[in-house]
Each structure stands twice: as C-alpha cells, then as structure tokens.
Specification:
Layout lengths: L30 E6 L4 E3 L5 E2 L4 E14 L2 E9 L6 E7 L4 E6 L1 E3 L3 H22 L1 H33 L3 H58 L8 H4 L21 H5 L27 H17 L1 H7 L12 H12 L1
Antiparallel strand pairs: 1-4, 2-3, 2-8, 4-5, 5-6, 6-7
Helix pairs in contact: 1-2
Pfam family, one: Saf4_Yju2
Family: Belongs to the CWC16 family. YJU2 subfamily.
Protein name: Splicing factor YJU2
Length: 341
C-alpha cells in the first residue's frame, strides 16, 4: 500500500515540458461549488421559502465587464428545492453583501432599506447645498433647532430619573413584605377553618353512629327483658305456671298441665304442700329409727315449713302418726294424691 501514496512522480531524462499542449478554456467558464444561501429568499415560481444558511451545490462564474475597484464580481446559480427553478445572485463588494439577481425575491431586509433611504436623503441634501447658500443656512438652522429639542428632552429625562431616585425603595419592600405576611395569615386562617369544619362533620357523624348504636342496644335490652329469665335452676319449682287460654269456642280457662313429679309429690308453694305433712317429733321414751323415706323428706320439709306460716303448721298438727312416732307411708301417699286432684 505504501507505493500508492508516493508524492513524487518519475520524470524521464528526455522530458520537455514545452512540448505539452496548453488547454484553451473560456474565461467565463463555470465551477461547481458548495455554498449556503446568504439571505432569506422566496421563489417567484412556486412561492417556496428558502431560508438563510441552507446548503446548495451551486455553479459559480465570473461576471464579465464588471469590477469594483479592481475586484471581480462572481455570480452563483442555484435551484429551488421545490420546483427546481433556477435562482441567481451575485456578490456586492461595495456593500459587503450579496445582491439578488433573478428567480426569487429577498425577504426581511428592512434595515437595509432604511440605510439606503438615509443615504439617498444625504446625497440629495449635499447636491442642494452645493449650488444654494441659502439652503445651507436653512439646514444649519434646522440642525440647531433639532439639537435644542434633543437637549431639552434629555434634561427632562434626567429630571424624571432624579424624581424616581427619591422613591423609598425600603418602604416599598416593607409594604410588599407586609402584604405577603397578611396573605400568609389569611391562608393559614382558611386552612384552620376548613380543618375545624371537617372535625365538626366527623364529630356529628360519630354522634349519629353512637346514637344509633345506643338505640340498638336499648331495643335489644328491652327484647331481652321481655323474655322470662331464671336466676336459679330451682326457681322453676316455686313459680306459678301460666295458664293456657283456648279460643273463643272453648269459652273457659284450661288448667295448666301438671308434671309427673307434681302428681306424686305435690307442689311446694300450694295449699297441699309437703310442708303441711311434716310435724315436729314429740319426745318419747323409746326413739325408733325413722324410715328412709321420712328421713330424706324431713330436712326439706323443715325448711319449707318455716316459709309456709302458721296455717301450714296448724294443718301439720292434724297429720296422723303411728304409736312409735314414725310417719305412715300410706297416709303420705293418700295426702299427696288428694293434693294432686
């Protein structure tokens, strides 16, 4: 690869450069160069906008018979990006700019137009003053009057600035801080008020929930109070059984159904209670053993006899006994059957 990068070429000993024929190229020949659009332009054919800085492959040529102080002027040919219409512009060394020539119009050149207008006015004024001395005096008078007006305006601006310089900036800053503080306090009060309203709503809701819960508890308590409750298992023996009512066709009250143990023994709180069958033993010379049934019935009958009263005790005195002081089992059964009937 190194032999391909040589910079020197071989010239034979009999080489004569004068024998090389010269190429006769035209002086207005064109070159292809790469450039960017020097200004904003708009195509006259399709109205496409071409902005400054867009790159083109342009053809460059030297303008014939046009020079500016010995400097040549060049012309460039580009094509529109939309319709491929040819656009030409050339250099302007007098104004250090480019001049549009054909195919498009230049946009956004207001500053350049103003400068051209000022130059034109200045040239006209110089031409008038050249041959008219009175015009020179008038122009000087106008210039002096203009300078006086400018000075007066400048003095007014200075006074205005001095007047504004006397403004108390510290006071303005304090007022702004006070206003900011009031705004912050107002926002804080609004936040507190909203928080209080939310708490009040939550409290009212909680009270309503508690009231509903208390009403439910009261209703449950009342329903439970209506139900009969028994404190002790033995209370069912002393309570009176409710009678069951029949329909209107029966026309009377039916007796409560008696249990089997009540038929054989009898109720504890009625007229024919077992307490009326118990009598206190009288002292005798010979004490015999009581029967097992009387022995088991004795303690319960004694406790019931205390609660029954004087009527039961008088009835108990008439209870028949045997000669040896023991109770007759046959008589106990008879009394229990009579009580059940």
């Amino acid at each position: 690869m190194s032999e391909r990068k040589v910079l020197n070429k071989y010239y034979p000993p009999d080489f004569d450069p004068s024998k090389i024929p010269k190429l006769k190229l035209p002086r207005d020949r064109q070159y292809v160069v790469r450039l960017m659009a020097p200004f904003n332009m708009r195509c006259k054919t399709c109205g496409e906008y071409i902005y400054k800085g867009k790159k083109f492959n342009a053809r460059k040529e030297t303008v014939q018979n046009e020079l500016y102080m010995g400097l040549p002027i060049f012309r460039f040919y580009i094509k529109c990006t939309r319709c491929l219409a040819e656009i030409t512009f050339k250099t302007d060394p007098e104004n250090t700019d480019y001049a549009m020539e054909h195919g498009a119009t230049r946009n956004f050149q207001a500053e350049k137009l103003i400068e051209e207008e000022e130059k034109r006015i200045q040239q006209e004024r110089e031409e008038e003053e050249l041959n008219n001395p009175m015009k020179v005096l008038e122009n000087r008078t106008k210039d002096s009057k203009m300078e006086m007006e400018v000075l007066e305006n400048l003095q007014e601006l200075k006074e205005l600035n001095q007047r504004q310089a006397q403004v108390d900036f510290e006071g303005m800053i304090d007022q702004y801080r006070e206003l900011e503080k009031r705004e912050r306090e107002r926002e804080k009060e609004e936040d507190e008020r909203e928080t209080k309203e939310m708490l009040d709503r939550a409290l009212v809701k909680r009270l309503r929930d508690s009231d509903s819960d208390s009403e439910k508890e009261e209703s449950s308590c009342s329903s439970q109070s209506n139900k009969p409750t028994t404190d002790k298992p033995t209370d069912i023996l002393t309570t009176d059984k409710p009678t069951e009512t029949q329909g209107a066709s029966a026309g009377g009250v039916k007796k409560a159904k008696m249990e089997s143990w009540e038929k054989s023994v009898g109720t504890l709180g009625g007229r024919g209670a077992l307490g009326s069958l118990v009598v206190r033993k009288k002292p005798t010379a010979a004490v015999n053993k009581p029967s097992p049934v009387a022995a088991t019935a004795a303690p319960t009958s004694q406790t019931d006899s205390k609660a029954s009263g004087t009527a039961d005790s008088t009835k108990a005195s008439k209870t028949p006994t045997t000669q040896d002081g023991s109770y007759s089992l046959s008589l106990l059964g008879a009394y229990s059957d009579s009580d059940s009937e």
